Amino acid sequence: RIIQEPASIGARLLALLIDGSLFGLYYYFIMLCEQNQIFNNWNDLTHFMMFVYIWFYPLVAEVTCSGQTLGKRLMHIRVVDLEGGGPKILSFILRWFMLPFDLFLFVASFSVFFTKRQQRLGDLIAGTWVVRTKTYASEKFSLADYTPGEDYKPVYPKAVNLTPRQATIIAEVLRNINNKEVRDTALGAKH
User: Given a cut of 80, is residue 119 above it in pLDDT?
Assistant: First the structure.
């Protein structure tokens, strides 16, 4: 089982700001085109279609891009179901449907702070959460930098045959195991 970390509130806010900035740039470009009469026959329908595009962007992007908008991709976060897999389309729709309540009523501000997985109301209803996608392999740590003391005696002498990368992966997995019984079994403790 892979243990996932909830995305930080800062990363989620920055992703939202990036997506919002894209909307702003898109709208600004359209308004410039309209003012300079680059496109003829602009009307209310065109403005409505532009609004629809902006409003449905989060839903379409998350469904088609593995739970990520451009902002989420840049911030290395994504939407997953509670088991860590890809959510069903209905879950994305529920999240999207609740977005106005989360944003405009500031419900997200409260629920993110008081839930274990830092879920906004839309996530709670949809059975989803936002996690970090950055892998441990991309982080800079290694057991190769560790030098044991002179009196150190290995518990498992065959462990010297592991490469530093293998030892680092094993150490990271053991560090992240939440279940004490599994950890004790993995470490060879007697019950």
Answer: yes
For the segment 108-118, the average pLDDT, to the nearest whole number, is 81
Contact 7, 75 (CB under 8 A): yes
Structure tokens at 89: 């389309």
Quote the percentage of the chain above a pLDDT of 90: 32
The CB density around residue 129, as the number of other CB atoms within 10 Å, is 22
Amino acid at 7: A
> What is the model's pLDDT at position 94?
95
Taking the CA atoms of 53, 105, 122 and 22 in sequence, report the sign of the dihedral they define: positive
Helices (H), 4-139: 9-35, 44-64, 70-74, 89-104, 107-114, 121-126
* Residue matched to tokens 């993995």: 186
Strand partners, 77: 132
Tell me the HSE value of 56 on the side-chain side, using a 13 A CA sphere: 8
Mean pLDDT check: name the lowest of 8-17, 43-52, 60-69, 179-188: 179-188
Rounded CA-CA distance 132/163 in Å is 27
Distance CA 177, CA 185 (A): 11
